[in-house]
Amino acid sequence: MGAYILRRILLMIPTILGIMAISFAVVQFAPGGPVEQVVAKLTGQGGDAGERIGGGGGGDIGRGGQESSELSSKYRGAQGLDPQFIAKLEKQFGFDKPPLERFGKMLWDYARFDFGDSYFRDISVLNLILEKMPVSISLGLWITLLSYLISIPLGIRKAVNDGSTFDVWTSGVVIIGYAIPGFLFAILLMVLFAGGSFFDWFPLRGLISENWWQLSWPERILDYLWHLVLPLTSMVLAAFATTTLLTKNSFLDEIRKQYVITARAKGLSERQVLYGHVFRNAMLLVIAGFPGAFISAFFTGSLLIENIFSLDGLGLLGFRSVLDRDYPVVFANLYIFSLLGLFVNLISDLTYTLIDPRIDFERREV
How far apart are the first and last CA of the chain? Predict the structure, then answer.
């Protein structure tokens, strides 16, 4: 097992390199980089960019209008700005160096978990991610917990009643729920229950109320759960569908095996057969997939939902960072998420061996 774990860890290195290299290459050709963002704000879309970026260099704007410089000509809207100010911006963002040198430095820094500072926020990237992480972790834990609490009992009952009316109509509900995009359902819930055209039962944004700190602890818990209702409902619908069908198929596969027939022949009740014998074997795939399900809900499921409900988590941070071309935040999120995803896949494989010792990855060819 030790050799298998070592091989998997070594394979993570080229995988991470490939992910970062492709993303870095795509960014080089993407229009509207951080320099263009600052230039656009300085030339009419925002007056505070000169104070936040460039260290007061906004005073140089308008000088050197007669100087036709390559620095100003290669950025859209930069004509008329002082070339020295543009050069200062490039140096501040690190764009004064060749792409390969910048990529190499980024890899060296990321290997030491040094992600630098945000371009447009006066805070280090790591502290910014840690600041937003509790919201996303909260959503991920709740989604995973609720989806498993719904999926496992529902999947077992569907397997026991395979082909019945209950199985047919619940399958239809599950498939429809899975087919409807979570963000679309979230908008529908907002219109219906968050002060849209019908009811005003739930808050429209945030995880807590403005007076949360003034409430007692029981009131704080209720307020927090009250804010979670709509976001979790819109995310759980798609999350529990896959686990439900996986649970049902796993139980159906086990129920048809010989040991189940033998257990029934010995006079065991259906409940004893189902939960004393079938459950342990059928839940292997479901339990082993728990780490992956959590990471999926944590990283991918909350992106649009956090934006729709204005939840200040990693999803909203990543979305705004992409729009602002805040590349340190974008690449740090990508690096951390990719690394965690690879480790979670390894943990999922190791979970199989803990649940079923008969599985031995050492005997498999990698």
Answer: 13
Please name the residue that has the structure tokens 């498939």: 175
Cα 121 versus chain centre, distance: 21
Q: Give the whole-angstrom CA distance, residue 87 versus residue 41.
A: 17
Instruction: Give every CB contact of residue 229 below 8 A, 6+ residues apart in sequence.
Output: 202
Query: What is the rounded distance in angstroms from the CA atom of residue 241 to the CA atom of residue 165?
Result: 18
Tell me 200's DSSP state. B
Could you tell me which of 234, 225, 240, 238 has the C-alpha nearest to residue 191? 234
Report phi then psi at 216, rounded to 5.
-75, 165
Please list, residue by residue across 182-221, b when 16 or more beta carbons sit within 10 angstroms of its beta carbon and e when fewer do. beebbbebbeebbeeeeeeebbeeebebeeeeeeeeeeee
Q: How many angstroms separate the CA atoms of 295 and 140, rounded?
A: 7
pTM for the whole thing?
Answer: 0.73
Per residue in 163-181, pLDDT (tens digit) is 889 989 988 888 887 787 7
- To the nearest 10 degrees (0 to 180), the angle between helices 217-255 and 125-160 is 50
| Residue environment code for 67-78, b if the CB has 16+ CB neighbours within 10 A, otherwise e | eebebbeebeeb
Q: What is the DSSP string of 248-283?
A: HHHHHHHHTSHHHHHHHHTT--HHHHIIIIIHHHHT
Calpha distance 298→142 (Å, rounded)? 10
Residue type present at position 174: V
Question: What percentage of the chain exceeds 70 in pLDDT?
Answer: 80
- Averaged pLDDT, 280-301: 68
CB 251 within 8 A of CB 155: yes
